[in-house]
Amino acid sequence: MGFLDADVPRLKILDFSIRLLLIPFNLASIWIAVNNRQNNIDYGELKFADFIGLNAVSAGYALFAAVSSWLRCLVTKAWIFFVADQVLAYLMVTSLATLVEFLYLAYNGDQVVSWSQACASYGKFCSRLKIALSLHVIAVCCFLVLAVISAFRVFRRYDPPFVPSKEGEQAAAT
């Protein structure tokens, strides 16, 4: 496969490093989500805990995948990482979209359905959600890079599809 085979050990180290880098970002997002509460005299308590599950799963998976990438006895099939990385990358992207929409509604409200702005009354809550969003964006970018790396690892084992050259087509036509 040319020059890419020489980079496979570097690719493995990059993969391992990104997986380890994901863990603190996901744990920090979990910590922010668990501790993000604000009480308002007029409206009561507001808390945000729906963000915990996917971050816990992705942090656990990142740790498992980082360890198993160096221990061949745990997982030897590259396609298992490929499928898991693809699924988690897409789940992280959809959760990012949900968090962005939630923040948009918290800051702007929706006058059509009579939702008022929450951030006017819960400023600390919204600023912590912006921090969680920033951490989540970094985690999503890391998972997207991991999805590309795992796809490369799986598909580099196969030959590229045969594409006939123009000269061959012309010779066959005559």
Question: Your description of this structure?
Answer:
This protein is mainly α. Helix content is 71%, strand content 5%. The chain contains six helices and two strands. It has a two-stranded antiparallel sheet with strand order 1-2. It starts with a helix and ends with a helix. The relative contact order is 0.15. The mean pLDDT is 79. Keywords: Cell membrane, Membrane, Transmembrane, Transmembrane helix. Pfam families: CASP_dom.
Which key phrases capture this entry?
174 residues, two-stranded antiparallel ribbon, mainly alpha
Q: How would you write the strand order of the largest sheet? A: 1-2
Q: Which structural category fits the helices and strands? A: mainly alpha
Mean pLDDT: 79
Q: How many runs of DSSP E, i.e. beta strands?
A: 2
Largest sheet: 2 strands, antiparallel
User: Span from first to last CA?
Assistant: 34 Å
Oligomer: single chain
Counting DSSP H or I runs of 4 or more residues, the number of helices is 6
Radius of gyration: 23 Å
Cα shape: elongated
Order of helices and strands: HHEEHHHH
Helix share, percent:
over 70%
Give unreliable regions as ranges.
Answer: none
Subunit structure: Homodimer and heterodimers.
Main location: membrane
Transmembrane segments: 16-34, 54-75, 87-107, 131-152
Pfam families: CASP_dom
